[in-house]
Amino acid sequence: MDSSSTEQQSSLRKLFDTANGQRHKLDSIPDPSSAVYQEHLRAAIAGFHQCRQLTERFAIFSPNEIEDDISTSDLQFLLIDFYLGEIILQSSVTDRKTTLLQAQAAYERYLKRLDSYDMLSKADSKVYQNFVSSRGDFSLLSTSDPTVRRNTKIARYKREQELRLKIEYLTQIPLALQNDDAASREIYLAQIQLYTHNAFHALDIIAQELKILALMPQASPAPQPEEREADYRQRNGRPKDSYSDRLDPSLSQLMHNGKAGPILSKDGKPLKPFTLLDNRQRLRDGVFRQDHALPTMTIDEYLEEEKRRGGIIDGGGEQSGRPQQVDEDDMDHADRETMKAREWDEYVEANPKGSGNTLNRG
């Protein structure tokens, strides 16, 4: 390898490590919507885009090569498009559909390059062909049979766990083995298999979200202030360049807006809503009336009505504490009071105090 190629490889590897470092910093930021998170995200996206341009400029990968022709140090550059798709999905932009399409294109470039090097397994190659043939309807669980769907989910989950355990085991080997080209190559290939698994899962989610966005109504663009002002004047029957300090519209504007003029057409069809009145006198009386509802009864009438309905209770207050005036000449009332007092005395004599307490007696 000549000096120019070495410098190219060094610059590409340095740029790749910088972009990958920005990507790892995103894991330490808890809020994805924060300005710091989005700043690191944009830096990582820009870095990986530059890496992708350098790989094409330096011809790192060629369609005439196979997997064995790729050097171990260049295997990590196969993941550039995967990293791009992964972080593009995390960007907070208003146009979600454009973001999904960009991420989908990045994942597809990643899988297409692996397929050109024949680095996809038979199962992954079949899934990739299904995606290419139907991008809009792509799904990892194409069947509606619940048993098959469940078994597919379990198989994919087990496969993902096996790949993660394999990578964890390979990264824990001694440092002497890590410097071995064969051991490093095995780690890169295991990472590519895991990220291929994740790429298909991401494409499945993207296809589902694109279907949902396709069913949503298209939001009309927000009108400019000049357009809103012009529309307001048109709705009120005013020219675009007119201005008036009047709060109430003129008679010509009322007639223009349909608030005056004929109520029925020549065919007898109503041209605007209207209210039928009994006579012209009622219409005349309503011209100089108050702008608020007038009372329909006096206060005394209201109190009588409430008393009749049971809304007013007599008694209480200061009068309830005053002794009742007794007429001394009313003999019937005196006899009733005397009989009441006798009955109470007889009851007290028949039931002395404590006679009902039979439990605590000695």
The secondary-structure class comes to: mainly alpha
Radius of gyration: 45 Å
Distance between the termini: 119 Å
Largest sheet: none
Please trace the helix and strand order, writing H or E for each element.
HHHHHHHHHHHHH
- Average residue-wise pLDDT: 79
Q: What is the number of beta strands?
A: 0
DSSP helix fraction:
55-70%
> What's the tally of helices?
13
Question: What characteristic shape results from the CA principal axes?
Answer: elongated
Regions with little confidence, pLDDT below 50 for 5+ residues: none
Percent in strands: under 5%
Structure description:
The chain has 362 residues and is mainly alpha-helical. The chain has 13 helices and no strands. The chain has helices spanning 3-25, 35-57, 80-88, 96-116, 122-133, 146-171, 175-178, 181-215, 225-235, 251-256, 280-285, 299-309, 331-350. The chain is elongated.
